[in-house]
Write a structure and sequence with these properties.
heterodimer, A: mainly alpha, 8 helices, elongated, B: mainly alpha, two-stranded antiparallel ribbon, 15 helices, 2 strands, globular
Chain lengths: 150, 412
């Protein structure tokens, strides 16, 4: 009886397929991060790496250490819930070195919250810029105490 | 409040009309995501044309068989590039394939793509070309001989039983390849069709519409390349082959146009709450790309021209038919590109509030500019030119032009 022989082209394809699957398996073994899948479908070590980034924001308490007067002023008005860094930008660099200056807030920043928009709650004061006084908010409003005149 | 808003917004954001949520003002999927489904569609279509010869034995199409397969391969090699260019971190592209998640369409695309290129297209080409590769590796000298020898993968058996096995294998692979081609492009339609929050995309017909527009564009591409290649090589055009391609192009176009018309009829009759914004979109922002280019130039005109040839073929001179096929193929290629544009860009131009529109600014030279898009559209033609140089030589020893050489499938 003639022994059954796999045709050469089929044999070569089987070997090629095995080689491709083998390369994929080896690549998967080496390229899959060690901590992948520990908590879910992501790299667990990424959590520690992200947490280790130097923070950019210092927090309201850090601002109040030096700018007590401003912190007390803002605490009395409707902006009391806002963080200082919402308008002044990230402050960690400034906390470490006071020579690093923060962003000087300008009118477009006010409009981020106060530009008229039907998706905003009605209790939030809103203006339509074209009908208002242009982008000269600080002439009439004090951001740290909006209820007071400058 | 709405009126106040409409008067205020133009000063703040001139590209916005009406009410648009903040995260919708800038389009996230750019022209590269238009190119991507276009190119995969051309691949699927070119493969379906080739399968008509191998599986359904449409002998008139044999002169274009190998050209269709090489066209499919050239475009398939470029298909993932638009996605790669679009990624913010292209060096991480292997990660979804190394740690695939079943709920991620992009991870699944990696496997569908790998399956299609390796298990379908390359295998079919290899079995089809094996005899030629063995002969060329013996006949040619230098780098060419090395390339052909490498591609034989060390198998030099070209006996009659071996060639019959090749033909049987190629046919079996083509049969597997047809659903694979549908899967490859149906998946692209699925990505859009499954986004249920977007009424322009979220539609179960989307994968089917994508597949048929892919078949239309793929056949049109093969007609275009076949005519150009023969012209460049000074060879006579095989009018029977062109007539057969024209017939299948017409049939595919009828189905594609009917499906898209059905989609619109259904949308208009069902008149869900999104219909007003979709009508404004079609008649406004997408007027030229949808109604003029896609519907009139890319569908209606080719339907009338190709339909006339089906009805009055014997009364229309060969030269007129050739030019008509050429014109229709160009119109269809542009029309399907416009269709991809209308789906991808159109779906991001209106707000989910259904009360406003944003605009898409097409940049020139940026990472996602039209120069990059143009490069990605031309690159497959350059790759195809190399393939044609190496795998569709003008003359064989017997003086037979391989474009008109019959593949071995008749042995099956």
């Amino acid at each position: 009886m003639r022994p059954h022989r796999i045709p050469p082209q089929i044999l070569r394809l089987i070997l090629l397929t095995l080689a491709i699957v083998g390369v994929y398996s080896v690549a998967r073994y080496f390229l899959t991060p060690a901590s992948f899948g520990r908590y879910g479908w992501y790299r667990a070590a990424a959590l520690g790496e992200i947490a280790a980034y130097p923070p950019d924001y210092a927090g309201k308490a850090a601002c109040a250490q030096c700018h007590k007067d401003k912190a007390e002023q803002i605490a009395k008005g409707p902006h009391k819930a806002l963080s200082c860094e919402s308008c002044h930008g990230p402050g960690m660099a400034h906390v470490g070195n006071p020579d690093v200056k923060l962003v000087k807030p300008a009118a477009p920043l006010c409009l981020r919250c106060h530009e008229a928009n039907p998706s905003r709650p009605e209790w939030l004061k809103q203006v339509t810029l074209a009908d208002h006084y242009g982008e000269n908010c600080l002439e009439c409003h004090v951001p740290h105490q909006p209820n007071e005149a400058p | 409040m709405i009126i106040e808003l409409l008067t205020a917004l133009p000063s703040a954001a001139p590209h916005i009309e009406g009410y648009v949520y903040p995260n919708e003002q800038t389009l996230l999927w750019s022209v590269l995501i238009v190119i991507y489904p276009y190119i995969t569609g051309l691949v699927a279509g070119a493969f379906i044309l080739a399968s008509l010869v191998r599986v359904f034995r449409v002998s008139e199409l044999e002169p274009a068989y190998r050209l269709s397969l090489l066209t499919a391969l050239a475009f398939l090699l470029v298909a993932p590039l638009p996605l790669l260019f679009h990624l913010g971190h292209p060096e991480r592209c292997y990660e979804p394939v190394i740690t695939p998640h079943l709920s991620s369409p992009m991870a699944m695309f990696g496997f569908v793509y790998a399956w299609y290129i390796m298990a379908v297209l390359l295998l079919e080409l290899w079995f089809d070309y094996r005899k030629d590769l063995v002969e060329w590796s013996k006949k040619e000298r230098g780098v060419r001989a090395w390339i052909y020898r490498l591609l034989t993968v060390g198998v030099h058996d070209v006996s009659e039983p071996a060639l019959q096995l090749d033909a049987r294998m190629a046919k079996a692979i083509t049969i597997i390849g047809i659903p694979s081609a549908f899967l490859l492009h149906g998946y692209v339609g699925f990505i859009f069709g499954s986004i249920k929050a977007n009424p322009w995309w979220g539609n179960p017909l989307m994968p089917i519409i994508f597949i048929f527009s892919a078949v239309v564009s793929g056949i049109a591409l093969c007609v275009f390349i076949y005519l150009i290649l023969n012209r460049l090589r000074g060879l006579p055009q095989d009018i029977d082959c062109l007539d057969a391609m024209g017939k299948f192009l017409f049939l595919a176009l009828v189905i594609d146009a009917s499906l898209e018309a059905l989609d619109w009829v259904h949308r208009l009759y069902a008149a869900e709450e999104s219909i007003h914004v979709l009508k404004s979109l079609a008649a406004g922002k997408l007027f030229y790309s949808l109604l003029v280019v896609q519907v009139c130039m890319g569908t209606f005109v080719p339907l009338v021209l190709l339909g006339s040839i089906q009805l009055f073929r014997k009364r229309i001179a060969e030269g007129v038919r050739r030019w008509t096929y050429f014109g229709c193929s160009v119109l269809i290629l542009v029309g399907v590109l416009a269709m991809r544009w209308n789906v991808v860009i159109g779906g991001q131009l209106f707000s989910k509030s259904l009360r406003g529109f944003t605009a898409y600014k097409f940049e020139l030279a940026g990472q996602e500019g039209w120069l990059v898009a143009l490069f990605l559209l031309l690159l497959p033609f350059l790759i195809l030119a190399v393939f044609i140089r190496y795998f569709l030589p003008l003359k064989t020893d017997a003086g037979v032009h391989p474009l008109t050489e019959l593949p071995d499938h008749k042995a099956v």
